[in-house]
Specification:
It is an enzyme of class 5 (isomerase). With 282 residues, the chain is mostly beta strands. Helix content is 6%, strand content 41%. The chain has one domain: Jelly Rolls. The structure holds the ligand O=C(O)C(=O)C[C@H](O)C(=O)CO and zinc ion.
Length: 282
């Protein structure tokens, strides 16, 4: 399938979902398949979550996709912008003829209007894994290469609460311009297992999390749902989860881990959050 479509769920319905239905609606289990592309289009703010894993040949952004049928446009980024973070081996992205090398954990923002975007790996046996988010856009901002050293770093949490971590803001108004997409990578310190706790929701934006650096046989219990109707999705390495605006998005792991967050919606105000009352969550 060139692109899977996910419809939105009403919170009144979602609280009745069983495990299988929760996973069917919100979990993205397989994103990185060697030599292949995976795309999941969510009706929630029309974010597209994708994985490009080139091996012995480059992969093109719109490869195998009829953009007129799926997006109503002549090419993928005609009315869209793109955020990418490489979580695999060294690779490169060429956007309209300009090549950007992406080392592991490097990011790239590609502005609206770029016609040809091509993903390639340096070593087919250690392929790049380009985690890619796309959001509707209204104007063109410059394409920007972001390495983790350029990201805006926000240390938070502490050892006492087992949530000591650094939020690396890659695509963020204080780093570079984008239309609506914000994106970054949060790294938990060794011995910490909680992310985004105390938890929050934000009715103004939806969010997608990709969990990574989870060792074999370890898991993250992703917490979602309205603050008084919490549910768990068991997640494994390099799996993602779609978080509607009404849902918290927190997690606790059996080992430290990292995750990439991406948001689209009303604003780009990272701290615009509705913090939950820890005495009221259920
Ligand atoms: O570690 C955290 O806390 C986060 O990374 C929070 C997410 O970025 C988020 O939920 C922003 O709304
Ligand atoms: Zn959030």
């Amino acid at each position: 399938m060139a692109m899977e479509i996910r419809q939105p769920s009403n919170s009144k319905d979602a609280k009745h979902y069983d495990t299988d239905r929760l996973r069917e609606e919100f979990l993205i289990e397989e994103i990185f398949v060697p030599g292949e592309i995976r795309r999941i289009y969510s009706h929630i703010d029309r974010i597209i979550t994708m994985g490009y894993t080139p091996t012995d040949k480059p992969l093109e952004l719109g490869e195998g996709l009829n953009t007129m049928t799926n997006l109503g446009t002549d090419f993928f980024l005609e009315r869209r912008e793109l955020g990418v973070i490489n979580i695999g081996g060294k690779g490169a992205i060429t956007a309209d003829g300009k090549k950007y090398v992406l080392n592991p954990r490097d990011g790239l923002y590609v502005g609206m209007g770029a016609k040809e975007v091509v993903f390639e790996s340096d070593d087919k046996n250690a392929p790049a894994k380009f985690y890619t988010l796309s959001a509707p856009a209204h104007t063109t901002y410059p394409t920007v290469h972001i390495d983790i050293t350029k990201a805006r770093k926000v240390p938070c949490g502490d050892v006492e609460h087992a949530n000591k971590r650094v939020i690396n803001q890659y695509i963020h108004p204080e780093v570079m311009k984008s239309c609506q997409l914000t994106m970054g990578l949060t790294q938990l310190e060794e011995g910490s297992v909680w992310n985004t706790m105390p938890c929050h929701t934000h009715e103004r934006r939806m969010e997608v999390y990709l969990y990574l650096d989870i060792p074999e046989n370890q898991v993250v219990f992703h917490l979602m749902g309205e603050p008084t109707e919490l549910r768990t999705i068991v997640m494994r390495n390099e799996q993602a989860v779609i978080s509607p605006s009404w849902s918290i998005h927190s997690g606790v792991g059996t080992h430290a881990y990292s995750f990439i967050w991406g948001m689209v919606g009303e604003n780009q105000t990272f701290d615009d959050m509705d913090h939950c009352d820890m005495n009221a969550i259920k």
